[in-house]
Amino acid sequence: MKKILFHHLPKTAGSSLIIQCQKIYKSLNDARYDIELSPQKMTSNKFSFYHGHYSFNKVREFKRHNPNSIIFTFLRNPLNRVISHFYNKIDESKVIPEIERVKKRGVIENLDEKINHYKNDIFNLSFNEFLDSSSKIAKESRYNRMSRFLAPKALFKQNKELAIVRSKENIKSFYGAFGL
């Protein structure tokens, strides 16, 4: 069976797609983050459909283990994505339960610190304050978020402009399909 990986970029309608895929695919993987998507899960016959907020490094590793796989992603107008991400990030009724779910998975540390950061620095921001904020959460939400998922992490640290160019090239050459 051919493996399918949906590279879920945040705030690009991925959750809606996953809900529909859960109705079709009975063998969905349970790895939402890089740390959870091990080579053992990548090569396991137990799964045929993978989805998660993976780095490009992890997606590339998946392709090395599964050269005949289908890998796809969704893109969104960057301004609309930032606005959607803002409303998601300031909504305590969504953020706290999600952090608690991640906490139960036991894959990310210091989540109590993250909750405090949201409560003290994010939840009460206006959109303009969010755009101006020096908070790591706000910065990561607004600055080339999709591009940072589509090129190697180290490249963004070395040369942001080249990383953005590489992201565009990767969309065309690496992914079997992408949706807007």
Explain this structure:
This protein is 57% helix and 9% strand. The mean pLDDT is 89. It is globular and about 50 Å long. It has a 4-stranded parallel sheet, with helices on both faces. Helix 5 (92-105) runs antiparallel to helix 6 (111-122). The chain has 180 residues and is α/β, with parallel strands linked by helices. The chain has helices at 14-24, 39-43, 56-65, 78-89, 92-105, 111-122, 127-132, 136-142, 145-149, 153-158, 160-173; strands spanning 4-7, 49-52, 70-74, 177-179.
Short description:
This protein is α/β, with parallel strands linked by helices and 180 residues long.
Features:
180 residues; alpha/beta; 4-stranded parallel beta sheet; 11 helices; 4 strands; 57% helix
Overall form: globular
Q: Find the structural class using helix and strand composition.
A: alpha/beta
Q: Strands across the major sheet, in which order?
A: 2-1-3-4
Overall mean pLDDT: 89
Radius of gyration: 17 Å
- Low-confidence segments, given as residue ranges, are none
